[in-house]
């Protein structure tokens, strides 16, 4: 039982990232009808927002200490971050908590990136075939990742979690199991809670605000909403920015789990498109449910006991589930009737 619970926790960890990215993908497809293959790049850009802020906060002032010499007889260097010089202990805390603080940078950056991407490129492909949309957004994703590679290099850049949150917690004891039966990193639990809050906030925004109600109406019948005198295109542009922000903050908080690298967006993109298809194209609850479901299945498939029977199953389990779902229910788990069934 403890092994099962551990795999469920691992699945919720992966599923949180899948669900957040798939949620943004579904918002864009459901509102604009665009298949956005550059969405994984937004996850990557969000992650590198954390890298940029961490580099800014750790810029150092170098002072030569003539009293202490190195082995070569030269004065040793005393390096002190400017943040600590200017803000003292608060500056040290900022450096320590640079990852969560990066959310404050990522939100405006991702909104700007999202608006620019939609207004500058994607709006010209609304009425074009999905194949054209895939080609142009995939090309944009490659351009963005090559820009990031040119500025930050090809190697992953580790981003430490705050020191107080680098420990692990004995969940097994809380649930009545033996001591040390289920030890789990605190930051991974925080990521799951963070994802749940973001998902809940997006659904609450769409469900209980006037703006969200209009957007949902536009997703169901865009032409009728337009005939009512509502500028639905402007609201859909704002939704594109919101989807970019959701994906960006997901990338920020994932950096202590997976060090940012220039191809991380592509790594998540294909999996999250599978999640969207399994959940149902345009279905927000379906995207979230499928994200967590496939994350848990992938976690169980990675167990040594399973891989000893079915070698490599952890690499293909998500795609096998997608094939089964699409053969038996083409519209996905929670997709609207008629979608992908014609």
UniProtKB/TrEMBL annotation:
Its main location: membrane. It is a multi-pass membrane protein. The chain crosses the membrane at residues 15-35, 42-59, 97-122, 189-215, 236-256, 268-297, 309-328. It comes from the Bacteria. GO terms for cellular component: plasma membrane. Keywords: Amino-acid transport, Cell membrane, Membrane, Transmembrane, Transmembrane helix, Transport. It is found in: Cell membrane. One of its GO terms (biological process) is amino acid transport. It holds the Pfam family BPD_transp_2. GO terms for molecular function: transmembrane transporter activity. InterPro entries: ABC_transp_permease, BCAA_transport_permease. Belongs to the binding-protein-dependent transport system permease family. LivHM subfamily. This is Branched-chain amino acid ABC transporter permease.
